[in-house]
Amino acid sequence: MYGWRGVVGLVKPTFRPGSLDRFIRLMPEGVCVVPRYVGVSAGTEQEFKQALAIADERVGELARLKVDLVVIQGVPPIMLKGYRFDAELTEALQRKHGVAVLTATRTQTDALKALKVRRIVGVTYFKDDLNPKFAKFFEEGGFEVAAMKGCVNVPFSDLGKIPAEEIYARAKKIFIEAGGGDCLYLLGAGWDCLPAIEPLERDLGTTVLTNVPADVWATLRYLNIRAPVKGFGRLLEEMP
User: Fold this and answer.
1) For residue 13, which of 30, 38, 34 has the smallest C-alpha distance?
2) What is the separation, in whole angstroms, between the first and last Cα of the chain?
3) pTM of the model
4) Within 10 Å of residue 51's Cβ, how many Cβ atoms?
């Protein structure tokens, strides 16, 4: 029987390959995943604003398929609206479509709290017109943000081609320059930063959090499944 431990609907912001595959591979046996897409392609603030209306439609589609949970991936559209908007959006979607909903912003803030993080150093692949707004989101949530900086300069469509070694080196530099923190936060699922998590945690003596592990952790917690995974950082290994 397919999905005997749960069926999860994913609302993905882009058609970019990579993060969907990572999410599915980190799910334990018995959990099935049904993806739907918003279609973000340029990564601009205007496009992120339009994405929320499309995400609403995708949640409705997944609800009609009777999934157990919908996870809305992609944090910028919600972060740009502010910390309070997250809960308002989730409540509205659940009431409208009659299905449980988690946002990626919620999975990450919940994960930070479970890991007892207070001070974060954020590293992103966005330009600095958006990064202060991302920092404000976490500050409104009660976290101290030591830095929130972009570290790459590549087209939005090519983020998946950035080597993990380059992500490691640049994130490490920003973390040290910012004076460190309880957590090194790598914003976004567009780059393949998962291979860099364990080396960064070990070398910096901190916790590293990024989108896919947070989504996996929160999904398993909602489904009441305890399936620790080694190799992708403290969150998935310890399952707090």
Assistant:
1) 38
2) 29
3) 0.94
4) 22
Q: What is the pLDDT of residue 178?
A: 98
User: How far is Cα 42 from Cα 157, in angstroms, rounded to an integer?
Assistant: 7
Using alpha carbons, select from 68, 73, 57 the residue that is nearest to residue 11.
73
**Phi, psi (5° rounding) for residue 149?**
-125, 145
**Coil/strand/helix, residue 37:** strand
Span 21-56, pLDDT tens digits:
999 999 999 999 999 999 888 778 888 888 899 999
CA–CA gap between residue 12 and residue 9 (Å, rounded): 10
Burial of 133 per CB tally in 10 Å (0-12, 13-18, 19+): middle
pLDDT for 16 equals 86
Helix (H) or strand (E) holding 186: strand 183-186
The tokens of 131 are what? Answer: 């990064």
Residue 39 contacts by C-beta under 8 Å, 6 or more apart in sequence? 14, 15, 54
Q: Which residues contact 45 (CB under 8 A, 6 or more apart)?
A: 76, 80, 129, 130
Sign of CA dihedral 138, 143, 144, 146: negative
Give CA–CA dist 26/114, Å, rounded. Answer: 20
Q: Does residue 13 contact residue 51 with C-beta atoms inside 8 Å?
A: yes
* SS3 at position 100: coil
Could you give the dihedral angle defined by the CA atoms of residues 190, 192, 196 and 200, in that order, rounded to the nearest 10 degrees? 0
